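Tutorial handout. Part one gives the primary structure; part two gives the three-dimensional structure as tokens.
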Amino acid sequence: MPLARTLLALSLLAAGLSAQAADWSDSSIGYRYGSKFAEPYNPQDISKNILNLTHASGYKYGTNFFNADLLLSDSKDPSSAGSKDGAHEVYVVYRHTLDLEKVSGSPFKFGPVRGLGVTAGFDFNTKTDAGYNSKKRMLVAGPTLMLDVPGFLNVSLLGLKESNAPYSTFSGTATPRYDYKFHWMLTAAWAIPFNVGIPLSFEGYANFIAAKGRDEFGGQTARETNVDMQLMYDLSGGKNTFKLGLEYQYWKNKFGNDSGGPAGKGAIAKTPMIRAEYHF
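Part two.
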């Protein structure tokens, strides 16, 4: 099956990243669940089970981050027209940040900023559903400010080059790969530990994405806001840890679909979730 081959390839990639010489590394498998997910053009609340594989590491000149999500929807987001089976999706993110101080030997510290980097990477997804069947491909690159906080807080301005080649099961029409207009994303990612008698961490990301011109069907895209944050409790401590927590995602104009247009309420997600992670 294509999905099985994709998951095998991602597992091998994550293993390869772990095998590189690293100053530090953290890999995890996780699970999260919510019942208020949304998809554009679908007015119903959707339940999803999500499995994830994550790897982060630091080496002599910078850091790597890799995440692969397997998203399994319920029947309200069907796998095909008239099916009672839910859609399934794989979404992958990779980022590499080159630390300019480590490369040049000169510090880049000012105010609350402890370092300056250059980030590059990609997103891709494949989804099997009743309508769009996304095949997103996106390259990203831009500068990153590393702020001086416990844990980390990185803020980046990334240029995005995105394309898609969907297939409509309703019309039976495959759309040739379409390139959106070059656009920008202001993004932040963080993991900040704190202790109030129990070991907690506040983690997440926030993406503010400019409109990307017209879509492959001629419709005007909209600016996106996507904030995903979680409060996690470390139940075990040490390197091999088990974390449990609560997560919340707010996503307006999902994938550039205007929530005030035909995409409707499905283009806005307000999704509480439970989340569990095992780190090794």
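Part three, for discussion. The first strand starts at residue 24 and ends at 39. The CA atoms of residues 191 and 203 lie 4 Å apart.
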